[in-house]
Amino acid sequence: MRSLCILLVLVVPGAGCLVQFQNEVVIERPVDQVYGAFMDESRLPEWLLGYKGMRRLAGEPGTAGSTSVLFFETDSGETLELQERVIAVEPQQRFAFEMNHESMISTTQVVFVRLEHGRTRMISQVEAQGKGFLWSILVRLSKSTIQERDLENLQRFQDMLEGKRRTP
Q1: Which residues partner with 129 through β-bridges?
Q2: Which pLDDT score, from 0 to 100, does residue 154 have?
Q3: Domain residue ranges of the chain, discontinuous segments joined by +
Q4: What is residue 9's predicted lDDT score, i.e. its pLDDT?
Q5: 127: which residues sit within 8 A by CB, 6+ positions away?
Q6: How far is residue 75's CA from residue 114's CA, in Å, rounded to a whole number?
Q7: Closest CA to 48 of 72, 27, 22
Q8: pLDDT computed for residue 143 by the predictor
Q9: What is the pLDDT of residue 11?
């Protein structure tokens, strides 16, 4: 096993490092509507892939320091539980949170930028890291899949607000 770990470090550049990426969409709605819909927990099933529900652990919804457990159904039909901790909230500007799982931890900052003509740029900035050596490698190798899923969620959110339907 030790030689496998050494080999992976040599073959996978940056193994164990933080994975970072950014996605964005421009939504044809004003920032107050975009932010309001983003903060509306009842609408999460409409756009967040696999979302099945939430259990509040502590704090007021949508406030820094609040914690919840979010439940997702994976592609294989299993239930995935992620613990969310809200890091920062600046209404209509920024919402930052941390997602914690036994295998990885990620921090996401969603930035809302007011544009001309009642449009909003929504930017998702994500940092993720596996817990432990092997999970770090798997997260690094899965970067493109994680980024694609994040972008798909943003596009589904955009479609929900603009009244569009995305074809599978």
Answers
A1: 105
A2: 98
A3: 12-162
A4: 44
A5: 18, 19, 20, 106, 107, 108
A6: 35
A7: 72
A8: 92
A9: 46
Non-local CB neighbours of 46 within 8 Å, separated by 6+ positions: 156, 160
How is residue 148 written in tokens?
């694609």
* Model pLDDT, residue 132: 86
* Residues 25 and 158 sit within 8 Å (Cβ to Cβ): yes
What are the φ and ψ backbone dihedral angles of 158, each rounded to 5 degrees? -60, -50
Q: Please list the rounded mean pLDDT of every run of 10 residues in the chain (168 residues).
A: 42 63 98 98 96 96 95 92 97 97 94 98 96 86 92 97 74
Tell whether domain 12-162 is in CATH 3.30.530.20: yes
Looking up tokens 């209404």, which residue turns up?
91
Using CA atoms of 56, 92, 153, 21 in order, give the dihedral in degrees to the nearest 10: -100
